[in-house]
């Protein structure tokens, strides 16, 4: 196989959630002397992006996404060994998530947490019905890059606005990027309260989170 | 919001024959065209009259199957439904329960 | 409104905000919306005539549009008239009326063709301890109303998970890649949910309810859909209840991924496949739900919702009553849904998707 064929095959192995194949291809790429970073970025990661897209279309279940991500982790572990220590994959960022106090909906937030982990974030999930002060305390404790809040009711979304102020009052807002989501939340709301990003679905949450930490 | 839908596309409930058409969907799984045809035949009207408030008001009064305004002595509630059940040749559970109580 | 040579039309975004768009922009959004539906749902896009009709609706300079006489459909409502007496979280106006009074207002003031009684905490699980109160309420309503009266509730499997219920929470397990535990929790919770739904539904049948409405089905994914289908099957075989199944979103979320009903994998099903499962289970009415995207225009949203719903209606053998409430069916996601777009969604759904009701 040439390089392009290897890259396509690595992506396919993730889409197929075939860990054995993914590991085999990772080793093969190294044997061929391919750049490990390129194989990760243009091969395995491309496969993971397609898995995310398939999930948003309903063509992959959440467990299948997780299994695919485990195949990716196994392959990336192999490739990372060949990278100089200072350029080995580090965590992408630290994300703190929670459903706003008074709100107990968390399925969507749980899916976001799952996908962020798949994409390399260190995720701290505070769960549901989370007091705003707990968001602030945990953000400080884990040195969060991103604080994401979910609200599915028009009553609880007000907590997202209050959270922005709490983070400012605690003196940590400048070092954190905030994301908001939930069925009743909109881009307009995010702009209105000064949140850094709004995501309509889980895959968009990942895309926006990656942009926020890279930007 | 229900009012907006009612104005835009609703049959009109007991102002017209909406509840009757609905019953044929619920009880016999009839799709709309079939349900409308069935009710129109039972009422002896054309399809275009089923959602017409004026002709249906008169018909509902004549058949005493319940009208939207509060007419003293007109069939209401279970009385209206028992007449509807007979008219449409269906069983309405609450009416059947009343019959059991009366035995 | 005119701006030079290009007419700009007052329309809205999916979050309800007013925007101005040209005819070409609206047309492009309609096309994009129907293409998105065709792509995601693997269905036929709307025809050019159908898209032209939506364009006509979206550019009509009237606040309210309506169907042609003779095309009216059955109108039902869920939520037990909570819009009157409920709080903001139920999109309610806090009007101090009882449930029975509220339902009478819907029958006589709003002219609905059917209505329903439901618990203010509109899920099956909270109903179980207070079933006699619900029975007494619907029994009383049935004495005085003429329109068909359902008992309605949401399966809401999430209430059976920690912290509200006795089973572990998949939303906690899955981020930790504990797939086996997540799946087991869903299967166990679904079985208890199924038993509760059957128990409550039969209690309503005992007092003469016309039907039972399973609302926002599959909100917690494929396990919840399966529990509901199994419940429908039992009720269809053992009661005379009319059974309606209304969905939570346009595809069934694969929280489990491997659950099947009658040999068909439930995860990922779109409305045209969902309706076949519901029919097979024995239900009388199916309510597809297509979610509104707040960042897209109403034209995009309505075209998309109509395309997906039309595909469902075309294959259905039971009545299809599409969900056209806040944030679904092309209606903007806004606490006060704007009447102009509500009527446009309503008409487009009826005239193009050939629905049996809303």
Your description of this structure?
The complex is a heterotrimer of chains A (215), B (103) and C (358). Chain A has 215 residues and is α/β, with parallel strands linked by helices. Helix content of chain A is 56%, strand content 11%. In chain A, helix 1 (3-15) runs antiparallel to helix 2 (19-31), helix 3 (36-56) packs antiparallel against helix 4 (62-80) and helix 4 (62-80) runs parallel beside helix 5. The longest helix of chain A is centred in the N-terminal third of the chain and has 21 residues, at 36-56. Chain A is elongated, with a radius of gyration of 19 Å. Chain A starts with a helix and ends with a helix. Chain B has 103 residues and is mainly α. Chain B has helices spanning 2-9, 18-28, 32-43, 53-63, 77-88, 93-102. The radius of gyration of chain B is 14 Å and the shape is globular. Chain C has twelve helices and ten strands. In chain C, strand 8 (260-261) and strand 9 (264-265) form a beta hairpin. At the B-C interface, helix 1, helix 2, helix 5 and helix 6 of B face helix 4, helix 6 and helix 12 of C.
Outline the secondary-structure elements:
The complex is a heterotrimer of chains A (215), B (103) and C (358).
Chain A lengths: L2 H13 L3 H13 L4 H21 L5 H19 L12 E7 L7 H12 L2 E5 L6 H11 L3 E5 L7 H12 L7 E5 L5 H7 L3 E2 L3 H13 L1
Parallel strand pairs in A: 1-2, 1-3, 3-4, 4-5
Helix pairs in contact in A: 1-2, 1-3, 2-4, 3-4, 4-5, 5-9, 6-7
Chain B lengths: L1 H8 L8 H11 L3 H12 L9 H11 L13 H12 L4 H10 L1
Chain C lengths: L1 E2 L2 E7 L5 E5 H19 L6 H12 L22 H4 L13 H10 L6 E3 L6 H4 L3 H14 L4 E5 L16 H4 L5 H28 L4 E7 L4 H17 L3 E6 L12 E2 L2 E2 L5 H11 L3 E3 L10 H18 L23 H15 L5
Parallel strand pairs in C: 4-5, 5-6, 6-7, 7-10
Antiparallel strand pairs in C: 1-2, 2-3, 8-9
Helix pairs in contact in C: 1-2, 1-11, 2-11, 2-12, 4-6, 6-8, 8-9, 9-10, 10-11, 11-12
Q: What is the rounded distance between the termini of chain C?
A: 32 Å
**Secondary-structure element string of chain C:** EEEHHHHEHHEHHEHEEEHEHH
Provide the helix percentage of chain B.
55-70%
Q: Would you identify the regions of chain C where 5 or more consecutive residues have pLDDT less than 50?
A: none
Q: What structural class should be given to the helix and strand makeup of chain B?
A: mainly alpha
The amount of beta strand of chain B, in percent, is under 5%
